[in-house]
Amino acid sequence: MKTLGSKKTPISHGGHCQRRPGIGCAPLPDSDGQEISLQCIRTASKDSPTARSSEQGFSLIELLVTTLVMTIVMGSLLALSNQSQARSEFEQDLVALNQSGREVADQIYRDIRLAGFPQQKLFAASLNWTAATSNKVASGFTTINANGLTFQGDIDNDGVVEVVEYNLSGTTLRRSEVEKNNDGTVPSADYQIFAENVTGLTFTYNRLNSGVWATAGVTAANTARVDAALTLQTPRQDPQSKQYRNTTFQTSVVARNLE
Ligand SMILES: [Ca+2]
């Protein structure tokens, strides 16, 4: 057999190869009767089933199926990621709700604890200071409602009495704290948002009746104990139950100067 390196003229493909069953083609002699092997080998390689498969690549069906599978997988991963994020956000809402509820209940407790402080009797009668004429004297509760109240008290213990008001506006709990004027008059309220997503707020007022707490016959002037129940709702729904979560915070406080 003549090798390719020993033949100087280019090998012509046309008509030199002959197919054989199961082989592809067989080497044929060239014009001077010598066999040429290379072109036949290349031709056989192109015609083999393995080579044909690799050259054809993916069919349209295969591409569609692959795309569909990838879409399903990516969609599932995205859904899982979204669920995880929603759960995380809801858990943060719960933490914020609990923190806010405790802070509001604690503030209500601290405020009301000092309602009516200081009383007129703590000052010399010669000063003639009263709650109506001085900002040194507190008058206690001035308005009491089921979901709001107003009272006077030196809540920061600086010698000047503040007027404190809790007021529910829609689902927003507002709180106002303003100092009384020198002449004892009360300035306009200055409301600040104290809690949002309030779905329930109830103040229950009590008076001391022969040493026993009673709700009957209660007025602003004789109120000495307040029971507060505040319900807060999460801003978002629980991603699992699709329900908002409500939590109630309660406090019961006796005004130490009024009992
Ligand atoms: Ca004060």
Shape: elongated
In sequence order, what are the helices and strands, one letter per element? EEHHHEEEEEEEEE
Largest sheet: 5 strands, antiparallel
Approximately what portion of the residues adopt beta-strand conformation? Answer: 25-35%
Describe this structure in words.
The protein has 3 helices and 11 strands, in the order ββαααβββββββββ. The chain is of the alpha+beta class and 259 residues long. It is elongated. The protein starts with 27 loop residues before the first strand and ends in a 5-residue tail after the last strand. The chain binds calcium ion.
Secondary-structure blueprint of this entry?
Layout: E1 28-29, E2 35-36, H1 38-47, H2 49-56, H3 60-113, E3 140-145, E4 148-153, E5 162-169, E6 172-179, E7 191-195, E8 198-209, E9 212-214, E10 225-233, E11 246-254
Antiparallel strand pairs: 1-2, 3-4, 4-5, 5-6, 6-7, 8-9, 8-10, 10-11
The protein binds calcium ion.
